[in-house]
Request: fold
Amino acid sequence: MKLFHVPLNMGKVVTRMFKKIQDAGAAPSDEDFLVLAYDPSPWKSELHMTVTNEVSDARIVKFTGTFISKVFEGSYKDVPKWFNVMQDYASKKGLKFKKQYFHFAYCPKCSKKYGKNYAIAFGEVY
Reply:
């Protein structure tokens, strides 16, 4: 569940996903670990986590295509603004978006503790 792009239960979801991945022996190394969030609306989110092999009872998605990326600093509430920045960035390069994904350095609780958060936006373009 989310409230305006702020994941209310992100910690629980990521913990549950990661346990399933660990139990399947599919956990990546720390350097290769990545969680991507795709928000089709302010009320819904999809999380994608790196795996090293198949995980039973999990939907495995393989990312292919052309992507652009940009790094941001701010809070989860800034996602709509970053979305627009990425749209402009792509447009200036003559590209259009299919989807945008975000990776956050910290969970909401940790970002409050540190006073900021870093995000990497990945845009699938054509």
In short: Strands lie at 2-3, 6-7, 35-41, 44-49, 66-74, 97-104, 117-125. The helical segments are 10-23, 79-92, 108-114.
